[in-house]
Amino acid sequence: MDENNTQRKIYVLDTNVLIHDPHALSRFDEHDVVLPIVVLEEMDKVKRGFDELARNVREASRQLEELSKGCADLKDGCPLPGGGKLIFELNHRAIELLPETLAQSSGDNRIIAVTMSLQQEHQDREVILVSKDINMRIKARALGLVTEDYRSDRVVEDMDLLPLGYVELDEATWGSMAADMQVSDGPEGTHYHLRWPEGVMAPCINGFVVLPGEKGKVLRCMAIEEGGQMQLHDVHSFRSERNAIWGIQAKNPEQNMAMNLLMDPGVDMVTLLGKAGSGKTLLALACGLHQTLDLNVYDRIIVTRATVPMGQDIGFLPGTEREKLEPWMGAVSDNLTLLLGDDFQGLGESLAQYKMEISSLSFARGRTYMRTWLMVDEAQNLSPHQMKTLITRIGEGSKIIILGNNAQIDTPYLTAYTNGLSMAATRFATWAYSGHVTLRASERSRLAAYAAEVM
User: Could you give the CA distance from residue 425 to residue 416 in angstroms, rounded to a whole number?
Assistant: First the structure.
């Protein structure tokens, strides 16, 4: 360790940090980073395989090899680009510092022991154990160590910053805006050209403005000009039976906003967040079938999702890719039953008839989706890397619809702050060819709506 620079902190990284983010070392490179040798041993156990954890471990191992190539003596540390050092800790005697109640054979406890040894050896420097394991952090704090969660992987720092997709105005604000507003008629309704007031949250392009009043009139932001000038247009109403899409009409203002985005071929990506029963999958399927079969805007519909079990895994599923995926597509089957009625003869029979495919995320890399309506269901279980892989597969004339509920995350180490759904919703919020809506109401049943609130 560099004793001359007491300003540098010493970070001890747990295995799960590198498994979760193979680029984690770059987040600490201005300080000294310690990897206990047990971390490399644990990484070696999970490096084989084709899932994302194994890929992350292999990527982290490659980075460690590159950093260690130029080191004459690894015990003295390898220089990091930010000025710190990477040190591989081989101190086996540190295990003696553990209390008798903690098993010495545990990998977590051996990492804690190394941290305790470093804290005793470098009392003039701050030694911090970084782990995504809550129980490990609690054990370490009980032993007097400083611990931190790994937060550099967060795609949103505050869930209040996650966009709703619309702005609700009060009477006074709308009244002041309407005073100098220019109104004109267009082929698809009324257009409003106005200056957005300072200090009032403004919508993004393809965002919506909910006006005050019992009817809750909604406008869509079509353009933002310099000086705070904004163009708002009337939205198309899908709330009447006459304008229903495959028999589905919007039951609330948020569903109507979502259908406006789904039915607009000029919007390449739509993200829909919402609680269980809010209609995300149903709206996306109905609009996709209409534009694929009736309007021929797209050649096919592809549905994919993360195959992460909610409870205990039932194990290996036999058959082809489609047969393996069918048990995971219950939401699609249920909604097709509602849309097709008596014409629905099972998911397998309906796929070819209605130009639909179900696809595994495992086979997305290398593909290009041309003239495709791509639905990504249960996107809260996707990592940012998986989400990037999917979005970058989209070809010309295609549209991706990303659906999810941040309250139902089943993937280990993913949270509402770090998953691919939150990343897509925030990173594309200001892009002119994307749109986002948060569906707040559950329309499944009064029981489901009440359960979503109280449970």
Answer: 11
